[in-house]
Each structure stands twice: as C-alpha cells, then as structure tokens.
Amino acid sequence: MFSKEEATLLRKEFWISFGKSFPRKWLLYNTEMKGVSFKFVADRKNAAVCLDIENPDELVNLLYYDQLLSLKLLITAEIPDILFNDAFELESGKKIHRIYVPFEKKFSIHDKNTWSDCFQFFLKTMPKFEDFFYEYEDIIKNI
Question: pTM for this one?
Fold first, then answer.
C-alpha cells in the first residue's frame, strides 16, 4: 500500500517517463471540437486509450457520439477491440460518452514492471485512433 504522496509521485513518474521515452505531439485536446478529446488513461488497475465526449451541452454530446456510432463498422475494422460506452462513469461520478480501447494485460500504475507494456500499448493504439479521426474528421464534425 502506498501513501497518498507516494502514489502521487508514482503517477507523476509514470507520465514523465512515458513522455520522455516517446516524445511526440499527440492530438489529445486539439480536436477543435469542444468537449471532445483523446486521452491516455492509467490508474491502479487499468489503462486505456480513449476518445471522451463531454461537452457541457448534452445534445451536442449525443450528436458527436451518434456521428461516431455511424462510423462504427469502419473504426472496428481498424481497431477491432474498440468499445463504445454511452454512459461511462468517471471516478468523480460524472457520466460521459467514451469510445476506448482497454489495455488487456495486467497493469497497475503502482507496479513499474507493467509500465513498459502499457507504454507500448499507448504507442501502438493512439496513432490508430488519431489516423481514424483525421480520415473521418469532416464527417465527425458535421453535426
């Protein structure tokens, strides 16, 4: 068990290590769509690459999510293990629309022995997400 301070330092070390090991400009928040962002997620038990839709206007959220659902066959051809969740609950209790690929191997941000595999997963998965977004950006943004 880690103290709160130790856990915070480990999380910080994880993200710094990832950034230094794989310096690259990721798309992340630069989608030019309010409330739509790509994210790397890593916590005590899970890791994932996500596209989160959390615009303050729920109607806009639904429209973006529906646009992405209309492309589901195309995106699953590129990323077969992608999941769609229209009511994903964050730790804060907030519900968002999330399209994501979970890291299937054993992972904990508190276990440095699992970091390398997670970094490779991030490095392999996020570019597929980004390429899909760039390919179909006009359709996704057309709400």
Answer: 0.91
Structural tokens at position 137: 């950006």
Going by the DSSP 8-state scheme, the letter that residue 80 receives in this structure is T
Closest CA to 99 of 75, 77, 115: 75
Our count of domains for the chain comes to 1
Q: pLDDT digits over 5-23, tens only?
A: 888 999 999 999 999 999 9
CA distances from 35 to 51, 52, 108, 129 (A): 10, 8, 28, 17
Cβ-Cβ contacts under 8 Å for 94 (sequence gap 6 or more): 54
- Structural domain including 52 reads 4-141
Cβ within 8 Å of residue 91, ≥6 positions away: none
